[in-house]
Design a protein that fits this description.
The complex is a heterodimer of chains A (327) and B (330). Chain A has helices at residues 8-22, 46-54, 62-74, 93-101, 103-106, 136-140, 153-165, 215-228, 246-256, 271-282, 305-311, 315-326, and strands spanning 3-7, 26-30, 55-57, 78-85, 116-120, 146-148, 170-174, 182-186, 199-202, 207-211, 233-237, 240-242, 259-266, 292-296. Chain A has 327 residues and is of the alpha/beta class. Chain A folds into 2 domains: 3-186, Rossmann fold (3-Layer(aba) Sandwich); 199-325, Rossmann fold. A 7-stranded mixed sheet of chain A has the order 3-2-4-5-7-6-12, sandwiched between helices. Chain A has a 5-stranded mixed sheet with strand order 9-11-10-13-14, sandwiched between helices. In chain A, strand 13 (259-266), helix 10 and strand 14 form a beta-alpha-beta unit. Chain A starts with a strand and ends with a helix. Chain B has a single domain (18-315), classed as 3-Layer(aba) Sandwich (Rossmann fold). Classes of the chains: A alpha/beta (327), B alpha/beta (330). Chains A and B meet through helix 3, helix 4 and helix 5 of A and strand 2, helix 6 and helix 7 of B. The complex binds thiamine diphosphate and magnesium ion. The site of thiamine diphosphate has 15 residues of chain B, from loops. Thiamine diphosphate (TPP) binds next to loops of chain B.
């Protein structure tokens, strides 16, 4: 198997370009995606290669262009819609939820909507309350949507290709702090990562740390710190948030007897709380401690550097808590 | 765009074709009336939006559309389903929440679809069908098809911001979409004039989209306008707006006693501007069709309808296992 190494950002670009070359129905649409190469440069060079038909700059009208893309998907095209930031999807979530997610069911199964909504999600750093929210739980709540949040460049490419090939509407959550991360991945044009499968990033025996997206980096750092105290942590990267890989989570917890979840999102009604509830109802007898969920503080994201740091899950606090759980 | 001489346009329709138009409009009317009854009997639940009074809009539009064109509308969608060629039985079975319904009983009154017939619903969020329909026109352009998407919405929906967003893109990208504003004078209970500034057919002007307002109660006027509009859209690669001046006889949905308008107002439209009476009079007075022949058509429409109702009410409810199917593609 031949491989190459590239960044998360370019992996996304490669995934989209390969799929646009492969399938004439695939196109990319969004603000600044064409001539400007994307607000985060995730579509670098694509407009040059594919032109106006396949890589389309939209006006700044999230509600309108999302509805338009959904309509074209119902007819059989396979749009990739970029939200410059997932915060802006609030203007479009009517079409994501009421049109894209529900129409298959409402039509008794005859209308499909093969579409990918992708873009930067959660806290990229110092952009304050209206550009920092983690929407994983919001969209994971909706039947009819798949929700993916890759934590490395390899998965970003494999999962985005899988999402584009999937016939369901897919929410694809990227993270700005990961855009520069480099990883090795296959060059094979049919390389995909299966949707709905978590990955064990690091094996361990004392505690399972479960996370998605950038929080996997936090989890890895926590695990490294715990090693110094002789605590062996297993790190599970959900990769897909909906459908959830329950088996991977439960198998790990049954082995370690302790579970911790890390997320940037607010705790109340979140993915972390749902996973904690799952573990407590399906692996209760295996637990040696209550499941702990570390989340963003329940406040709009502050701008000041010190406050922002305090608002997000902190490695030290998590390490301290786990030490008390394992004792 | 200049309207063609309406008398000349009329002469392009054979008497047989007009009888068929009459039959279609009668089917819309009789089914609407029947569903009102069924609603009162408790056979139909939830919301139920009737189409009585607006029949010429649909009949005229469909008379001048071609195979391959797409149609999308709001929740006031039962007659649209028939117009697209969906079996009346499947519509009534859906309304009664049966397994044999067009959406297997999962969509209901507001959500019916038949993609193979160019029928795309059936949408319950006011205005949402407009960007969707614009996206269907985007598909036709993308594929290089000579087809349009007829995107219908109401006077109330016309104030939705997403419509302006869609029109901007439709104009910018030259999408083959015909916007049909069914101005039936009211939203739910709010008169259009109390919430709409300016003229609805001119709402695309800022984007360079032309439009016109026509008498939506007259089959020929509607058909002539749609014929011209369709040709214009495909030849010029431009969207177009037709505002249909129409009227709904019944309340907004079945629970609406319609206290915001007078009985006289409704009666005046029924007497002077009824779309069925107009086509009926044309057939009898101008084409020499016997009234007994038209009566016979009505009898057949009613007999078929009765059969469809029987089919619906005797169909089984959806299987409990259907609850969790059709959520995700396989
Ligand atoms: C976004 C949204 N807001 C409000 C409603 C409730 N509602 C349903 S129909 C309607 C009136 C719409 O009137 P109009 O567009 O004129 O269509 P008509 O019913 O007259 O055909 C309203 C307010 C809704 N379904 N969706
Ligand atoms: Mg109205």
């Amino acid at each position: 198997m031949t491989t190459y190494t590239t960044t998360y950002r370019n992996a996304l670009r490669d995934a989209m370009s390969e799929e646009i070359r492969r399938d004439e129905k695939v196109y990319l649409m969004g603000e600044e995606v064409a001539e400007y190469n994307g607000a985060y440069k995730c579509s670098q060079g694509m407009w040059e290669e594919f032109g106006d038909k396949r890589v389309i700059d939209t006006p700044i009208t999230e509600y309108g262009f999302t509805g338009l893309a959904v309509g074209s998907a119902m007819k059989g095209l396979r749009p990739i819609v970029e939200f410059m930031s997932w915060d802006f999807s609030m203007q479009a979530c009517d079409h994501i939820i009421n049109s894209a997610a529900k129409t298959k069911y409402m039509s008794g199964g005859v209308v499909d909507c093969p579409i990918v909504f992708r873009g930067q999600n959660a806290a990229s750093g110092r952009v304050a309350a209206q550009h920092s929210q983690d929407f994983a739980g919001w969209y994971a709540n909706i039947p009819g949507l798949k929700v993916i949040a890759p934590a490395n460049a390899h998965d970003a490419k494999g999962l985005l290709k899988a999402a584009i090939r999937d016939d369901a509407p897919v929410i694809f959550l990227e993270h700005e702090k990961l855009y520069g991360m480099e990883n090795e991945m296959p060059t094979d044009l049919d390389f995909t990562v299966e949707i709905g499968k978590a990955a064990t990033v690091k094996e361990g025996t004392d505690v399972s740390i479960i996370a998605y997206s950038y929080s996997v980096e936090t989890a890895k750092e926590v695990a490294k710190n715990l090693e110094k105290d002789g605590i062996s942590a297993e790190v599970i990267d959900l990769r897909t948030i909906s459908p959830l890989d329950e088996t991977a989570i439960l198998d790990s917890v049954k082995k370690t007897s302790r579970a911790v979840f890390i997320q940037e999102a607010w705790a109340y009604a979140s993915v972390g709380d749902s996973v904690a509830s799952l573990i407590q109802s399906k692996a209760f007898d295996h637990l040696d401690a209550p499941v702990e969920v570390f989340s963003g503080e329940r406040t709009p994201m502050p701008y000041a550097a010190n406050l922002e740091e305090l608002a997000l899950p902190q490695v030290d606090k998590i390490v301290e808590k786990i030490k008390t759980m394992v004792k | 765009m200049n309207a063609q001489n309406i008398e000349q346009f009329k002469s392009e329709y054979s008497t047989e074709q007009l009888i068929e138009v009459y039959r279609q409009m009668l089917r819309f009317r009789r089914m609407s009336e029947k569903t009102a009854q069924m609603y009162q009997q408790g056979l139909i639940g939830g919301f139920c939006h009737l189409y009585t009074g607006q029949e010429a809009v649909l009949a005229g539009t469909f008379a001048e559309c071609e195979k391959g064109d797409d149609h999308i509308t709001s929740y006031r969608c039962h007659a649209h389903a028939l117009a697209c060629g969906v079996d009346e039985k499947e519509v009534l079975a859906e309304l009664t929440g049966r397994a044999t319904g067009i959406s297997k009983g999962k969509g209901g009154s507001m959500h019916m679809f038949a993609p193979d017939k160019g029928y795309w619903g059936g949408h319950g969020i006011v205005g949402a069908q407009v960007p969707l329909g614009t996206g269907m026109a985007f598909y036709h352009k993308y594929m290089g098809n000579q087809n349009i998407c007829v995107t219908s919405y109401g006077d109330g929906a016309a104030n939705q911001g997403q419509i302006f967003e869609a029109m901007n893109m439709a104009s910018l990208w030259g999408l083959p979409v015909l916007y049909v504003v069914e101005n039936n004078v009211y939203g739910m209970g709010t008169a259009a004039k109390r919430v709409c500034a300016g003229e609805l057919h001119q709402r695309g002007a800022a984007f360079g989209i032309e439009g016109e307002k026509v008498d939506g109660q007259d089959f020929f006027t509607v058909a002539e306008a749609v014929k011209r509009a369709r040709k214009y859209i495909l030849e010029n690669k431009r969207p177009y707006i037709i505002e249909m001046d129409t009227y709904r006889y019944r309340g907004h949905s079945m629970s609406d006693p319609a206290k915001y308008r007078s009985k006289e107002e409704v009666q005046a439209v029924k007497e002077n501007r009824d779309p069925l009476i107009r086509i009926y009079d044309c057939l009898v007075d101008e084409r020499g069709v016997k009234e007994s022949e038209l009566k016979e058509i009505d009898n057949i429409v009613k007999a078929n309808l009765k059969e469809s109702v029987d089919f619906a009410v005797n169909s089984p409810l959806p299987d409990a296992a259907e609850l969790m199917t059709d959520i995700m593609p396989k």
